[in-house]
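Colleagues,

For the teaching module next term, I've prepared a clean inverse folding example: a structure given as C-alpha cells, and then the sequence designed for it. I'd like students to try predicting residues themselves before seeing the answer, so please don't circulate the second half yet.
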C-alpha cells in the first residue's frame, strides 16, 4: 500500500425543519462558489429543486449516481464538474453519493468507501435526534424506549459495530475493488430477500 495523507473536513450537522434554506451559506463556509448537485436517478426531482434554490450558485445536476459507484460513473461525475466549472458538490442522499466526489478528488476507492462510512455518523446522529424528538411522549411504545429509539437495540447494534468495524476496515483495504462490489451486492440481495419475506411471508 502506498503512503498517503488525507485531511478531512470537520463534520458539521445542520438539523431542523427548513435547513435546506441554509445551503448557500454552507457553500460559502467551504469557500466554494458553484456546486454540482449529485443525486440518483430516483432523486432527480429533489436535485432539481435544490439546484433551483441555489440559482446561479448551482453549476448543474448530475443525476446518475448509483450505490457502490463504478469507476466509470465517478469519472463521468468528475468530468461533469470540470466541464460545468463546479468547485464543490452537494449530494442528495448519504454516503454512496459522496464516493464520486472523493474519487474526483483522487481518493483511492478503498479510502473513499471508508470515509463515506464515516460520513454516516453525522447522518445517523441527525436521524436519531429526529426519532427522539418526534417520538417523545408517544403512547404504546415498549419499555426502555426513548422516543422512537429502542435502547436495547441501540446498545446491541453499537456493540456489534464496535467489534466488527475493524474487521471490515481491514478487509476493505486487502480485497480488490471488484471483490468488494460482489460482497456488497450479495449483502444487498440477502437484505432484499429478508424484506420480501417479511412483507409477503406467512
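(Answer key — instructors only)
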Amino acid at each position: 500500500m502506498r503512503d498517503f495523507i488525507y485531511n478531512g473536513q470537520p463534520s458539521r450537522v445542520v438539523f431542523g425543519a427548513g435547513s435546506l434554506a441554509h445551503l448557500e451559506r454552507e457553500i460559502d463556509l467551504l469557500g466554494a462558489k458553484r456546486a454540482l448537485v449529485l443525486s440518483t436517478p430516483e432523486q432527480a426531482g429533489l436535485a432539481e429543486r435544490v439546484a433551483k434554490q441555489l440559482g446561479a450558485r448551482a453549476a448543474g445536476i448530475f443525476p446518475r449516481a448509483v450505490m457502490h459507484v463504478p469507476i466509470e460513473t465517478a469519472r463521468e461525475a468528475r468530468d461533469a464538474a470540470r466541464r460545468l466549472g463546479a468547485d464543490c458538490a452537494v449530494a442528495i442522499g448519504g454516503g454512496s453519493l459522496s464516493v464520486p466526489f472523493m474519487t474526483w478528488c483522487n481518493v483511492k476507492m478503498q479510502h473513499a468507501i471508508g470515509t463515506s462510512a464515516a460520513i454516516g455518523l453525522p447522518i445517523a446522529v441527525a436521524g436519531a435526534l429526529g426519532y427522539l424528538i418526534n417520538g417523545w411522549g408517544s403512547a404504546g411504545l415498549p419499555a426502555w424506549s426513548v422516543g422512537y429509539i429502542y435502547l436495547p437495540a441501540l446498545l446491541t447494534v453499537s456493540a456489534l459495530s464496535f467489534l466488527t468495524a475493524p474487521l471490515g476496515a481491514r478487509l476493505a483495504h486487502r480485497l480488490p475493488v471488484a471483490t468488494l462490489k460482489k460482497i456488497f451486492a450479495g449483502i444487498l440481495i440477502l437484505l432484499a430477500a429478508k424484506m420480501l419475506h417479511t412483507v409477503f411471508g406467512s
